What does this fold into?
Amino acid sequence: MVRWNDRFIALCQAAEAARAALPPIYQAPERAFAAANPLLIFGELRKYANQQLKFVEWGSGVGTITIMADLLGYRAFGIERDVRLVSVAQRLAEQVGSDAVFGAGNFVPPAHLPTAAPSVPAEFALDGGGADGYAAISCLPTDIDLFYVFPHPEMIDVFHELFTRVAKPGARLLIYSQLMEVLTSVRTLMGATALVLA
Ligand SMILES: C[S@@+](CC[C@H](N)C(=O)[O-])C[C@H]1O[C@@H](n2cnc3c(N)ncnc32)[C@H](O)[C@@H]1O
It folds into this structure.
């Protein structure tokens, strides 16, 4: 039997190799394509594992976290606007035997642009338009139980607001912050709880 540790290590190694094979623009230390620490996210995903919850990663990059969610028993989806990264993620899933689903498109649903956004460089901003990422994964935001995102630190409140506007009551948001912490909020009937350390 393959132990979970072995699968996790195999996934992280394959993800690193996939990332290293990308063109230099993806390797730059700027955070537009930075990857989260998978171990920290693993600790959070494990709390709600094996319940067949629907998980979506907003901006799934090479797919590491979405695949990890799939391996932990979620029905896992990644939405990514960069089609090259979507292909890399799909290959990575195949390589490690994961059923994670990746769709190319925008995770900001049409007509749900945030009302107020800080001035951050364009690659970190939340922009609408382009292909609908939810159509690409055949899911609606209101189907999702657990959202995960790794945003620019100045965009954390904007993502929290987006979650409040699109998620169903009971859904949970996990945010990986630049401080290597995971923040969480739960959608309630009236809005969403404040972001707190998970
Ligand atoms: C900082 S990386 C995070 C990668 C991965 N989620 C992780 O935690 O390791 C952000 C990713 O989100 C993607 N992205 C940013 N805005 C997006 C949008 N509106 N719709 C879809 N993908 C987006 C970027 O192309 C990039 O791959």
Q: What stands out?
A: The helical segments are 4-20, 38-47, 64-71, 83-96, 133-136, 156-166. The longest strand covers residues 75-80. The domain at 4-21+34-197 is CATH 3.40.50.150 (Rossmann fold). Residues 31, 33-36, 57, 59-61, 65, 79-82, 85, 106-108, 126, 133, 150, 176 surround S-adenosylmethionine (CB under 6 Å).
